[in-house]
Amino acid sequence: MALTYSPQLLSGSTNGRPIEVATIATPGTTIHTVQSTGTDAREEVHLFAANRSTASMPLTIELGGTATTDQILTFIGAQTGFDRVIPGIRFTATTSIVRAFTTGTATDSLSLDGWVDRAT
What we know:
By secondary structure, this protein is mostly beta strands. The chain has one domain (5-119): Sandwich (Jelly Rolls), CATH 2.60.120.260. It is built from no helices and nine strands. It has strands at 5-8, 19-20, 29-33, 42-51, 57-63, 71-76, 80-92, 97-101, 110-119.
């Protein structure tokens, strides 16, 4: 059976608006909660980060958990627009939560946007 893909907003977003990374430790700000909608269901999460600060900012993305093996650390350059940080990580038929946090000093400077390709 062929899968049908449909783009979806990130569940942590309000009407498709960017999500501010407000937390400074694990567990991070909720970006998206993966839906569990059947055994063949899967979602691919695509994320982009923007930094309004004049300094480079660390960004940790938590992919389904809070253990260090679930975390990806990257740095977002000073005053950058939306740079791709997650190129389509797949989750299958589980309720996983994608979260993000920063340990930088300007915690209101990072925001994330993106979409989810939901396959059914």
